[in-house]
Give the backbone structure.
Amino acid sequence: MPRINLLPWREKERREKKNAFFVMLGGALVGGLLASGAFYLILTSMISAQQERNNRLRAEIKILDAQIQEINNLETQKQRFISRMQVIDKLQRSRSEIVHLFDEVTNIMPDGVYLTAMKQTNRHLKFEGVAQSSTRVSTLMRNIAASQWLRDPELEVVKNDSKDNSKGNSFVVYADQISATPDETAGKPPADTRVRRTQGAGK
């Protein structure tokens, strides 16, 4: 008598397909996990490399900042040194100028004119004194205008406080000292004689 298989063959085929699907699904899951792990490792390596480059750049930037600060300090010291050298050079020149100035003051004083005070602010000079007449003061201003070390005479006041002219005329005259260096005298206008105010001029 022939043997008959009573198991449904469709059900067996369905199980086989289901098992094959789970196998493929598991393989795909494993492949996805492996791909994700590889991508994570590559991304982590790239991030680490970039952070290392950033840290190296920060270190180099700090070194450059220190070098820039050192350069700025050297530039500041250079400017201070130049300023000190200019001051020293100016003092060296002014030593001889002072001698010329006092010598010139004695030369420009006409007879009958006497100084009672002299004040210097930078290169601006103020002469206070007494003259026998206003003509003597005019002569003083002409002498200043023609001087090699003085210029721009400026008369502020000439007055006579006494009725009999026994005390003479008191005056105030301003002038500028001429520098011995060409750069400070270049472009200056020629000396002139200006009168601010005249009170009670004596004759």
The radius of gyration is 51 Å.
